[in-house]
Amino acid sequence: MTKMKMSMILAAALACGLAGAQSLVSERSISLNAAMELATTGLERCRADGYKVTVTVLNRHARTAVVLSDDGVNPHTVENSMRKAYTAFTTRAPSVDMGKRPQPGLSGFLLLDRITTLEGGLPIFAGKELVGSVGISGAPGGDKDAACAQAGIDKIAKGLGG
């Protein structure tokens, strides 16, 4: 086949493939205001229960929207809350579900940066669309972190629509 024919075939293939491509992508994400409200509610719930925690909320692109770290909280909670939120975002499931995955897949996943099996990270959905995630760390048990995270999600749930 000549170079000219190959070039024409490649150009036609590209034109066919790109002809139907969209120029813009529209995605929903948790707003900064909603992220702050969620984080504040989660922090207040944990405080009411007697826990000092760090709350991290990630937006639609797994970028940090808000981090609230209570006075006197242990320093490791900042990283832990991020890992929990990131895991929940990446897996579209509570962070604790990561630990339920079978081997050898689990050990491979745990080699990735920011992945954890600890409880306290929850995805945030608007209907079926993932729009962010939240991770809380510092309470004496991941179930308590998760309860505070859920309180924050419940607070903003109406605004998430469907």
Describe what you observe in this structure.
- By secondary structure, the chain is α+β, with helices and mostly antiparallel strands.
- Helix content is 46%, strand content 16%.
- The protein has one domain: Beta-Lactamase (2-Layer Sandwich), CATH 3.30.450.150.
- It has helices at 3-19, 32-48, 76-91, 105-109, 142-160, and strands at 54-58, 64-69, 121-126, 129-137.
- A four-stranded antiparallel sheet has the order 2-1-4-3.
- A hairpin with a 5-residue loop joins strand 1 and strand 2.
- The protein is elongated and about 75 Å long.
- The model has no long low-confidence stretch (mean pLDDT 91).
Write the layout of secondary structure elements.
Layout: H1 3-19, H2 32-48, E1 54-58, E2 64-69, H3 76-91, H4 105-109, E3 121-126, E4 129-137, H5 142-160
